[in-house]
Amino acid sequence: MTRPRLSVSLVGLGYVGLCTAVSFASRGFDTLGADIDRGRVEQIGKGRAPFREPGLDKLLRLGLRSKRLMVTGDVSKVAGTDVIFITVGTPSNPDGSINLGYVESATRQIGTSIRDEPDYRLVVVKSTVTPGTTSSTLKPILEETSEKKAGVKLGLCTNPEFLREGSAIQDALHPDKLVIGAVNKESGSRLAKLYRTFYLRRPPPTILTTPDTAELIKYSSNAFLATKVSYINTIANIAQQIPGVDVEKVAEAVGLDPRIGRLFLKAGPGYGGSCFHKDLQAIIAFSQKLGYKPTLLETVEEVNEQQATKVVSLAETLLGSLIDKRVAVLGLAFKKDTDDTREAASLRVIENLKKKGAQVVAYDPMAMPNARQVLGRTVEFAKNQRSAIKGADCCIIMTEWDQFRKLKGKDYAQSMKTPNIVDARRLYTPEDLEGLKFRAIGLGHDTH
Ligand code: UGA
């Protein structure tokens, strides 16, 4: 591989920053990852990623060993690189609106550090920010602190990411699109050129546009995906009322229409993760501030919130009152193959179960340390899936981990006090659990 001439850096070594950094290093770029959290930098520098992601540890070690990837706690060092990506978090304010504190401070640090830099520097905002942030908020900060004018030895772009947890490295190396919102022509062509090198001259379809549009594209993507989930969960809740009807069949048929598509039509306990809820809240608050009430998106969130209560009411249809009932919750992560419990539906379901007086025993193959931090001693944590169901009155499947399928009907029948199963992820068919009391999201049952 011929070595790319441009060097890159990333400010913020969270999920997006670190996955992007190792991907650049793996394609031969001299890459510098910077973060103000020195503990995190030290850990990453030793080859230990602070979160689990398939393929990440390997690329991290390769990057560090080859010295293509360096990490630092001194953000000003990024001034020495050609392209500087901002990949810090954009959390929510209490009212749901976006908190731009970290992005603004990263921009300030970058601007100050490149002040005396004679060469062209391109700053790229990868963090998810609401429309107008790059051009109206970050550009003035960058210009003021760097004492440069955008367009003169200083470029600025918005370049949102669409990585999914669990396949972030794959997504970074093979994305379905690139979105570049540039404050001027040169900034855009420089970033496009960088990506031509990255994608070995075969870049994915590229949308070159303004920063405001690029920023809205990111929110529209996540809002649409979340809408699909709330839509299918709505259909699931209707299907559930009709004996013999199964939402999975409905989704299969509906998804064959190319205008709809089959992906993201899996009914379940509601979406979780660090992005959908946060981004929906941010775009709703943003829109309201502009004077438009986005009723559709508000409803998507409402449906999602309610979905947890639907899961609990399935348990109630089997058990009646939940007071003092021992309920096993299998799965705490917001989806399989991750240890992330942020906004996980399991947490909403557990809160609901506790309110109804149930005793909860929980198990997850990866996410227990994270869940423990949130749930503390309010629930019992089991050693494994078998001990979780032992003596339980009911078992609720909350995450679609493959290993849960290893539990067969006879395992539940033998271990549980009363084998009542609520499948919020559709891991089982009614035939798999014949003879047990079984309810599943979107599966219509006779009520007698
Ligand atoms: C999501 C988007 O898919 C990424 O494109 C985006 O870059 C990312 O947010 C982000 O903004 O950073 P992620 O949060 O990793 O990625 O998770 P998804 O795989 O999208 O799943 C989100 C939630 O929806 C999960 O709880 C999942 O179980 C649920 N879901 C998904 C369903 O309930 N049904 C489906 O059919 C699909």
What is this structure's SSE topology?
Elements (H helix, E strand, L loop, with lengths): L7 E4 L3 H12 L4 E4 L3 H8 L10 H11 L2 E4 L10 E4 L14 H13 L7 E5 L7 H14 L7 E5 L9 H6 L4 E5 L2 H14 L7 E4 L1 H29 L7 H9 L20 H14 L5 H25 L6 E5 L14 H11 L3 E5 L4 H8 L4 E2 L3 H5 L4 E4 L11 H7 L4 E4 L13 E4 L8
Helix pairs in contact: 1-3, 4-5, 8-10, 8-11, 11-12
The structure holds uridine-5'-diphosphate-glucuronic acid (UGA).
Uridine-5'-diphosphate-glucuronic acid (UGA) binds next to helix 8.
How many helices? The count is 15
Whole-number mean pLDDT: 96
Give the helix/strand class.
alpha/beta
Low-confidence stretches: none
From the alpha carbons, calculate the radius of gyration and give it in angstroms.
24 Å
- Strand fraction equals 5-15%
Strand order of the largest sheet: 3-2-1-4-5-6-7-8
In percent, how helical is the residue content? 40-55%
Shape: elongated
Hetero groups bound? uridine-5'-diphosphate-glucuronic acid
Order of helices and strands: EHEHHEEHEHEHEHEHHHHEHEHEHEHEE
Largest sheet: 8 strands, mixed
- Spatial gap, N to C terminus: 67 Å
Number of strands: 14
Give a verbal description of the structure.
With 448 residues, the chain is an alpha/beta fold. It has helices at residues 15-26, 38-45, 56-66, 101-113, 133-146, 168-173, 185-198, 211-239, 247-255, 276-289, 295-319, 345-355, 368-375, 385-389, 409-415; strands spanning 8-11, 31-34, 69-72, 83-86, 121-125, 154-158, 178-182, 206-209, 326-330, 359-363, 380-381, 394-397, 420-423, 437-440. Helix 1 crosses helix 3, helix 8 (211-239) packs across helix 10 and helix 11 packs across helix 12. The radius of gyration is 24 Å and the shape is elongated. The mean pLDDT is 96. Residues 161-165, 222, 225, 229, 264-266, 268, 271-273, 275-276, 334-335 line the site of uridine-5'-diphosphate-glucuronic acid.
